User: Which sequence fits this backbone?
């Protein structure tokens, strides 16, 4: 067993420096690596390029890094919940590359799987396809998209063990699974870090080989963005 | 003129037995409320769940269980979770039978625009570009005219496109229309709305054959 444990978020983000590219897991605020993000906010590292489906909200998630202007460029598919993001984008302070969600996921997965590029029909005929190679397959046009190249991936899982094996919970799996191993170094923060042997190998979602550093997050707020409920019938 | 709920109710009639269905944010989400009890349907949300159920009871919300609109949800027996790459894999490989989404504009050749108003509003395309590029059965739920009273059913979209030649059917507060190789074909009108009202609210040409029936609910 190769032990991937680091003490805490501070130790986990060692080596992240100004101007690096980070792939960050989560969908909305669900499954975001909130402890690592908090540590990045405290670090004052700046000029970052962040690849993440969303950019958090104004006061949580990657929104915290945006508030402090630590992000130079954001690559995301949907930023609708973040007013500061929209303001920085429209004013030109923040460089933004909007990418179709499935393409974003696949560009991570391609990096994770060692595939340099792939064709997808998503975005053909739109401004997303501008300047990209196209090719017809089975009578349908596709565009060429490249795997991401990033310095670090930062993901969040429900449970993990010392070997870096990860298990996700519910829809918090989202981008965390294809992002693990997509960057040169992958940091995994987990809600519960257990001894090797405690996780059933049959149930592992991401094998530890994809993870270089793992730690148990000190505190998880797990904020809900849209609390929707129904009334109990009397 | 239909309410948003009635638009959803009318679209629910297009959901058939054994369909896997992806619902977009807004009016499309409401469609789930009207699907008949006697057919088997599974709802997919592109953030990684099949077999989505209703909203949770108060106090049972789970931050690890949301839909693509970031709303808290529940799952039904037979549900499954998967990651985002896998989710779009099943969309690209056409395993999802029906996609219902909103739009800012639709044109008569089936183009759709719903993600950006240059210089004003940029929310991003989310999963919409992937969905419309791959799905074969796409229904758009939208309002026929914008707040300024201008038609959103156009000869040609003016906003940045989300996808080209992909929309098959449009349901608005006024009408049901099919997108055919010759353009929009008017199929049904909302209760109390005349064919003339619809023509007036539509910038695109409408193909109108015979009497246009009123929608049935």
Assistant:
């Amino acid at each position: 067993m190769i032990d991937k444990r680091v003490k805490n978020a501070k130790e986990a983000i060692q080596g992240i420096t100004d101007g690096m590219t980070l792939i960050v897991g989560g969908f909305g605020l669900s499954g975001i690596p909130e402890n690592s993000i908090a540590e990045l906010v405290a670090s004052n590292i700046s000029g970052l390029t962040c690849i993440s489906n969303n950019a958090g909200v104004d006061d949580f998630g990657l929104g915290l890094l945006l508030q402090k202007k630590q992000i130079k460029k954001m690559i995301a598919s949907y930023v609708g919940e973040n007013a500061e993001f929209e303001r920085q984008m429209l004013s030109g302070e923040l460089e933004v590359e909007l990418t179709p969600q499935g393409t974003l996921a696949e560009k991570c997965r391609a990096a994770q799987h060692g595939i340099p590029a792939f064709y997808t029909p998503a975005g053909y005929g739109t401004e997303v396809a501008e300047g990209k190679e196209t090719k017809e397959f089975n009578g349908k046009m596709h565009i060429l998209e490249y795997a991401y190249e990033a310095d670090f991936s930062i993901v969040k899982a429900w449970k993990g063990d010392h070997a870096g094996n990860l298990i996700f919970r519910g829809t918090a799996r989202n981008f965390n699974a294809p992002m693990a191993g997509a960057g040169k170094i992958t940091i995994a923060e987990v809600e519960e870090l257990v001894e090797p042997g405690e996780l059933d190998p049959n149930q592992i979602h991401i094998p530890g080989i994809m993870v270089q550093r793992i730690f148990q997050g000190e505190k998880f707020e797990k904020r809900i963005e849209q609390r929707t409920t129904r009334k109990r019938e009397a | 003129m239909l309410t948003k709920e009635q638009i959803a109710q009318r679209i629910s009639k297009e959901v058939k037995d054994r369909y896997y269905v992806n619902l977009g944010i807004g009016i499309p989400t409401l469609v789930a409320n009207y699907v008949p009890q006697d057919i088997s349907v599974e709802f997919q949300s592109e953030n990684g769940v099949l077999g989505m159920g209703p909203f949770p009871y108060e106090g049972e919300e789970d931050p690890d269980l949301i839909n693509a609109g970031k709303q808290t949800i529940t799952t039904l027996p037979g549900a499954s979770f998967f990651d985002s790459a896998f989710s779009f894999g099943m969309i690209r490989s056409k395993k999802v039978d029906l996609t219902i989404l909103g739009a800012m504009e639709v044109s008569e050749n089936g183009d759709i625009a719903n993600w950006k108003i240059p210089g004003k509003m940029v929310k991003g395309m989310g999963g919409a570009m992937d969905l419309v590029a791959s799905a074969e059965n796409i229904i758009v739920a939208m309002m026929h005219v914008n707040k300024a009273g201008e038609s959103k059913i156009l000869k040609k979209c003016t906003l940045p496109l989300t996808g080209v030649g992909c929309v098959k059917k449009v349901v608005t507060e006024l009408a049901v229309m099919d997108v055919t190789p010759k353009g929009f074909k008017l199929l049904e009108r909302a209760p109390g709305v005349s064919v003339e009202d619809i023509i007036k609210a539509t910038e695109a040409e409408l193909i109108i054959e015979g009497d246009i029936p009123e929608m049935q609910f």
Observations:
- The two ends of chain B are 13 Å apart (CA to CA).
- Chain B touches chain A through 56 residues (CB under 8 Å).
- The mean pLDDT of chain B is 96.
